[in-house]
Amino acid sequence: MLKKEVQALIDQGKMLPLMEEFYTIQGEGAHTGTAAYFIRIGGCDVGCHWCDVKESWNADLHPPTTTDLIVENAKKYAETVVITGGEPLMWSLDYITQQLQEKGIKTHIETSGAYNFSGVWNWFCLSPKKTKLPTERCYEEADELKMIIYNNNDFQFAEEQAAKVGKDCKLYLQPEWSKKEKMTPLIIDYVMKNPKWKISLQTHKFLNIP
Predict the structure, then answer these.
(1) Any idea where the domains of the chain sit in the sequence?
(2) Which of 123, 128, 159, 192 has its CA 20 to 30 Å from the CA of residue 134?
(3) Architecture of the domain made up of 16-206
(4) Is the pTM of this model over 0.85?
């Protein structure tokens, strides 16, 4: 297939730079402990220095894959698909989510919200980053706000972001993995003083699963 033809399909969301796909247990946030099929799409320029999937940043390392094939793989395993990255909203997600929904599969996303909203979602997990803030539409769509706590300043940033989402959005504070021993006690104390927040942990890492 010619490069121009591939790019046209990528623009339509009919091909995506797939990094990996796997069936596992959701480890974070509101759906912790539930089975889900994860689709990780390459490409991200948000640039979190503590990112644990930096190999996802360069989309050119992850070959464009036919979206129909990704959907066929997903439907073999799960009733719920989580699309993540990288930053998945760098790509048009209307086609893949429509195809999944037509097959009765629930669609979830984990995103920084830094790019234009696309897709049809049963659950929209927004995790804003200071380097590139979410779009207004992404704040409006958020079902879950997951704030990564790396240092003390992140509590203030979390409150600023919480003020921008809807009143029914679930609020989570999650310690950055390398700082969990230091930050978890602070998060516990903060949530006890500010009970609108809940604690999210990366339970999949404790369980030693993907």
Answers:
(1) 16-206
(2) 192
(3) Alpha-Beta Barrel (3.20)
(4) yes
